[in-house]
Every structure is written in C-alpha cells, then in structure tokens.
Write a structure and sequence with these properties.
By secondary structure, this protein is mainly α. The protein has 23 helices and no strands. The N and C termini lie far apart (about 70 Å).
Length: about 575
Amino acid sequence: MDSVMIITALLMLVSGIGVFLISCNMLSSNLESMSSSKLRAMFSKASKSKLRGVGIGAISTAAIQSSGATTVLVIGFVNAGIMTLPLAASIIYGANIGTTITAQIVALGSFGNSISMTAIFSAFAGIGAFMNMFAKTDKYRTIGGTIAGFGLLFVGLSLMSDSMEGFAQLPEVKEFLASIDNILILLLLGVVLTAIVQSSSVVTGIAVVMVAGGMLSLEQGIYLAMGSNIGSCIVAIIAGFTSGLNAKRSALIHLLFNTFGVIIFVVADFVLKIFGFSFGTIFESLFPDMGAVQLAMFHTFFNCVTVIIMLPLTNHLISLVTKILPDKVEDTPVDDSAPHFFFINDYMLKTPAIAVEQVKNEIINMSHLAMGNFRRSYNMVQTMDFSEMDKFEADEDQIDFLNKEVARYLVKLSNLPLSAKDSVYISTAYRSITDLERIGDYAENIMEYAKKMKDTNEGFSNIAKAEIDKVEKMVEELYDKILVAYSMNDHRSLKHAYEIEEEIDKFTSEMAENHIKRLNEGICTLDVGAKYLALASDTERVADHLINFGKTIRDMCQCNECS
C-alpha cells in the first residue's frame, strides 16, 4: 500500500467517522421528537420502583439514542428537586442498557452477507431524504429524518470498513495494534476517546467495526468498550458538579456504577484466564466467525449483568456517595426565598421534549404565585392585615424573575429541534408569562390601595366588602377552570371560563354603579371610592389576563371548534 493509498484510506476513515457521528445525531434528535410525548409520560411517572426506573432509563435511552442525554436529564430533575436519588440511580442503570442498541445495530450490518446488508440499510438514507424533502407535514419529515439517519449510520460504517480493510492487512498496523495488550491502556483509550466524542455508543460502534475488519482482536474491543462506559460519565460529571449537592451525587453514582462494573468484569476475566478461558474466548465460541456480533453481544451482556449486580446494592451505593459528598451543615443554608427556577434548568435542554414539559410546569407554578399574591392583596384590602407582606414581596420578586428568565430559557429552547406542536407551544409561552406577570402587577396595585387606606385609617364599607368577596370567588372559579384548560388542554373548561369571565365583566360594572350610588348617599368617601373603582377595574383586568393565559391552548388545536 503506497502513500497515496494510505492517505486515501485515512480520508475515508475520517469521512466515515463524520457520517457516523452525524447519523447518530440525526437519529437522536428525530427519534426524540417522535417519542416526546411517551418520554414525558415515562419521566412523569417517578415512583419508588427500581425496576420501573431501570425500564424508563432503558426505553428512553433507546428512544433518543444517547445515554449521556438521559443521564444529564436525570441530573437536571434531581437538581430541580423533582426526582429522588434512588429513582435517579435506577434510571441511570437503565440508560446503560438502552445505549447497547447502537452496537447491536452496527453488528447487524456485519451479520451474514455484510455487503448486501450494508447496501440495503444504506439505501434507507436516500429513502429518508426523499421523505424529508417532499413530506408536507412535520410528522412525516421527522419520520424521514429518522430513516435517513438510520441509513447514514450504515453509510458511515461502510466507509469506515472499506478504509480499514487495507490497513488490516499491513504488517506494521497489525504489529502496532497487537502491541497494545495492556488492559489498563485499552481501558484508558476507551475513556479518552469517549470523553472526546462524548458518546460511548460511537466509540463502541467504531470498536465493533474494527473488530469486524480484523484491526482489533475481540479482547481489545472488549476493554475499549468497557473503557467507553467510564468515559460516558464525563458529560454527566460536568453537568452534576456545576449543580446542587444531589446533582453531584447523581453524577458520582453514574461514575461509580460504571467503574464498579468494569472492575467486576476485569476481575472476572482474570479469574477465567486462570482456568484457560476469557470473555473473549467465550463469546468467540458462542458466535463463531462473527466478530462484530461477538463484541456487540458482550457489550449488552456487560451492561445487563452490571445492572443485575448493582440494583440490589443501590441503597449501599447511595450511602457511599452520601459519605463521599456529605451534607455541609457548616455552610450557609440556601436561601429558598431568593428568586430561582422550580422545574427547569439548562441541563434539560439536552432533551428538548422534556424541557418543554418542564417549562409548562414552571409556568403553571408561576400562575400559582401570581394568584397567591392576588389572594393576599384581597385579604389585605378587606382586613388591613399585612402579616403576609414579606411573602407577598418575595413572591413578587419571584414572578418578576420568572418573567425575565423563562423568556431567556424559551429563546434557547426555540433554537433546538422541536416537534411542530412543541414549537407552537413555545410561541404561546412568551405571552403566558407576560399575562401572569401582569396579574402580579395588578395584585401589587391592590396591595398599595390597602396600604394607603391603612395610612389614612380608612376602609371599605361592609356592603363594598361583600361585593369584593363575591368577585374574588368568581375570579377563583375562573382560575380553577383556566388551570384545568391549560394543564389538560381541556377546551370545555376554557368555554366555561369564558362564561365566568363575562359574568365578572358584568359584576365589576355593577360594582362601579353601586359605588356611585353609595357615594351619592354619603356612605363612602371620595378617596376610598376612587380606590374601590380602581380595584374593580384591576380585578376585571386580572380576569382578562387569566383568559389570555388559558386561551393559548387554542393555538395548539387543529379542530374546527377552536379555529
């Protein structure tokens, strides 16, 4: 093989790796979009069942083709306080099982008549591309992108296999690769390569191809694959160790789980060699003359057995992690009253479909804060009791924070691959947070009316208080309907909300008319009356903003009733 052929082969190898990486990214993004609703449903079913957690981790990782994304997402949930460490650990275990599907797909291209199989599956790239170009709906474009990504995976494998075929025959290459027999070097190589490309699936896939092409022995491939499992923890470690304590613990659980698994198998392989066996010889005998299948099956076996061993030891692993990263009682406690996110963080952006769902939860929580202040302001204006003033001000700061920071988060989210439905939701979310922030402002106005009346030792008449109490109940009923409509996309509740909002409009007009009568009768003073009129107007505007908040669900509906 002359220098020109060597350079050509190297260029093909780099091209193949590039196509392989792009295909993995396409599969991940498109599969995620297709399965977003299922992913949301699975992650919302957080329970104490470890087996269910393993299943959730395995299925979600197989769906989005990225154990790193799943693990980072779990760390985000733990950091947000909506997932426990035991559940996070079990999902991380499952993610290690789900990630083995990529190696199995790669091995499939080498099974039997590899040329025809590769050609058949590579053709999917063209089929998917045509679907993506000519599809009229977002759903079919996503399906086309998934099929194209699957086909490109085999195109990349074909390029890599062809480039390695000549190299595998060179005596110099054989001697160099054969010289790498130190298991620690092979493990470290797997760790470093995975840390660089940030995907254990990619490194294991390349190892499968190299074993199939004869460039690596099965033994070498096994240790590279095990090293890649440790290297896959790098992204999670970065995400976890820039977050809260439990997020750090989740990242450490991931690292220790994979490290313990490698140690167990290294020791087991050493014991087997004493008796003249090894994992390499065992899988060679189970799948003769199928190098790619041998490594892919070992990879699946390794991860499944590690989960079986570690699952009953989860509580002990959590105890160990807690001792390594203990609660620091001497530190200044975190000020929970400081403005912060409750449900979202940047790590969730790794999985946009889940991030969208969490944005919705964040906005619903923002509505609770706004309505909480509305209730406090009404209580203040009727009772002149300002004992909850500190809570009112803290929640107003929180509402202002969410109004600005959720908007920034939505900008980041809108630049990521989203389904058509999620894209529409993001566009409505901007308006929703604005409407909720305005409700908070009107509550602040009403609170100011109460403060001024207290300063002047004035107050509303009993008749006026009765009207205020009635309209508050009407707004509460409106909010209940709006919350159901927004949370469940319930258009029947939205229809009822419109009816209640019309009643509030009529009643606030009656409040103004009744006030004029009381003013003429001398029951109420001019200054207090002005505040009463302003309160009625503010209440009517709160109802309008609640309706605006709820009717955003119409933008996501295709039915004739809502168009």
